[in-house]
Specification:
The protein is mainly beta and 239 residues long. It is 0% helix and 35% strand. Strand 10 and strand 11 form a beta hairpin. The N and C termini lie far apart (59 Å).
């Protein structure tokens, strides 16, 4: 008798990261998953979520529900920077459970204003109209045996980070457009493999981005051939 396959593509909120989901903006992410194979008459009747986090007993939460998209986080919320390993299994209309999914790792970002202790720095003394994009540099001393390192970064404008001469992340135009008067987006990077004992050099190539003015949109032009055979330019109609 065919069995229901273990759930796959476990997601936290709308994140689709291939690996650990870092810097989540909530301590109680919603969960989604897919069942890749099952009997033709399969219908989910329930699911169980297993959550493993450091320093507390492992918890399991069995829920009677057919839902598998953006279901509520069943445990107490994660704290800032706290991570958890999550597995899911599902049940059909009978009592038979699927195997457990592969574990997925989620890590909360900086959830409270007091978590941000760094100050903004400015290139006002080295950046000027017509000059190359400025680079802001700093250094930090680290001990041996670093187990985990994260870089939390944002900017008014756009930035490209490098740590010890190596590019951090692959985002373009980070941190992305936002309503700057209300909030700033930020990125979380795992830089454990980039740090080293002793002095670490951090560089940011920065630019104006959208912060220093709205994006310019070019109104399209078309050439229309009129019946008499005379080309005439026509502007796009933006409504």
């Amino acid at each position: 008798m065919p069995r229901t396959a273990a759930p796959v593509n476990l997601r936290f909120d709308h994140r689709t990261d291939d690996g650990p989901v870092l810097g989540l903006g909530t301590g109680a992410p919603r969960l989604s998953w897919q069942v890749p194979a099952a009997d033709d008459d399969y219908a989910q009747s329930g699911y169980e979520i297993e959550i493993t986090r450091a320093g507390v007993p492992q918890s399991k939460h069995a829920i009677t529900s057919p839902e598998q998209v953006l279901v509520p986080w069943p445990d107490h919320p994660l704290a800032s920077r706290e991570s958890a390993e999550v597995r899911i299994r599902v049940r059909g209309t009978g009592d038979e459970w699927s195997d457990w999914s592969e574990p997925a790792v989620v890590e909360a970002g900086l959830l409270q204003p007091d978590d941000w202790t760094a100050r903004f720095v400015s290139p006002r003394d080295i950046g000027a109209v017509g000059s190359p994009a400025p680079i802001l540099s700093g250094s930090i001393e680290l001990p041996d045996n670093i187990v985990q390192a994260r870089l939390y970064a944002t900017a008014h404008g756009v930035y490209v980070p490098e740590l010890n001469g190596r590019r951090v992340g692959d985002e373009q135009l980070a941190p992305g457009w936002t309503s700057y008067q209300f909030r700033l987006r930020y990125q979380t990077h795992d830089v454990t493999d980039l740090v080293r004992p002793g002095t670490n050099e951090l560089d940011f190539l920065v630019g104006n981005g959208w912060h220093r003015g709205p994006p310019r949109l070019q109104r399209p032009k078309r050439r229309v051939r009129r019946p008499a055979g005379c080309p005439r330019p026509a502007r796009g109609d933006h409504r």
